[in-house]
Amino acid sequence: MTIVSICRPVHSPWDQPMDRCFRIFPCLADPARRSSLCLKLALVTIHLAYAGVLFLFDGDLIEKTKKEPWYTVLYLLLFVLTLIQYFATSFSSPGYVVDAMMTVNESNVVYRKAPETSNQPASSKNGSFVVSMEGNQMGRNSSGSNATSWSKLVAELYPYGTTIRTWTCTYCNVEQPPRAKHCHDCDKCVLQFDHHCVWLGNCIGQGNHCRFWWQDAIMILLLITLAIALIFLLLLLLFHSYLILTNQTTYELVRRRRIPYLRAIPERVHPFSKGICRNLYSFCCARYSIYDLESLPTPQEIEEKSKPYTCSDAVTCRCC
């Protein structure tokens, strides 16, 4: 006699409510996004609990806020501004390489179908983008055609003779322009990759580095009573301010010797720097698109940047 047993999977009593919740909120079905949202909620809850404890154990503070309500108004204003800046940075796009590639390819198709509209910026469903090139790259493109494919565009940003394997991502198989890197947390290549911020649950790159910097500045005003957090955020703000003034990213500064196209450049030379003032202006004011691409400097430009500063350079504002 043969006994056949059928094993049924054991279902948790939470499975059905969780499935219903995932159907209502599809974003919670992704474990990475779910953990990121939980972290954001935890940070806001901790701050509210900290403020609540102050009012609970300090009776004089409540009386002071009644007599001088501008304390409360100022606090709420800073708190709301910080929340807006925090969530705007966490949900903003850092500038993914694949999005820039799609924008360039779409503009190339539009140019072929309607040559008279080729000078217009490329558009997408999420808004209007402008993919521009710095230096003499635009001149090189205009000699052939006004619209170019992504592969040709990236190839022109590197020195002549560089193989395609050097700038092709081994994970997502897309051509990376200079300063781009693949983020293993987001599983995407990011333009001007700086780092992946765990507290934001998002990458920091060309598209949201400015928001990240301002977010730290506002957080310093809010957390001034916490000395340890103040010191940490102040150092982070100064560090990223230095990166902005020299037009670098954290990845380029820390992993410089591991980046093939930066190995031959002297340590004290910042290849993408245009001067302190121009770097600051370009970062804060003159960035028309998060998909602006930068070309590597020529050997002559690198030699010029490596020269030591003199008194005449200070007069002519070479550093600016």
TrEMBL record:
It is an enzyme of class 2 (transferase). Its main location: membrane. Residues 168-223 form the Palmitoyltransferase DHHC domain. It is found in: Endomembrane system. It catalyses: L-cysteinyl-[protein] + hexadecanoyl-CoA = S-hexadecanoyl-L-cysteinyl-[protein] + CoA. Its EC number is 2.3.1.225. Belongs to the DHHC palmitoyltransferase family. This is S-acyltransferase. It comes from Abrus precatorius (Indian licorice). The lineage of its organism: Eukaryota, Viridiplantae, Streptophyta, Embryophyta, Tracheophyta.
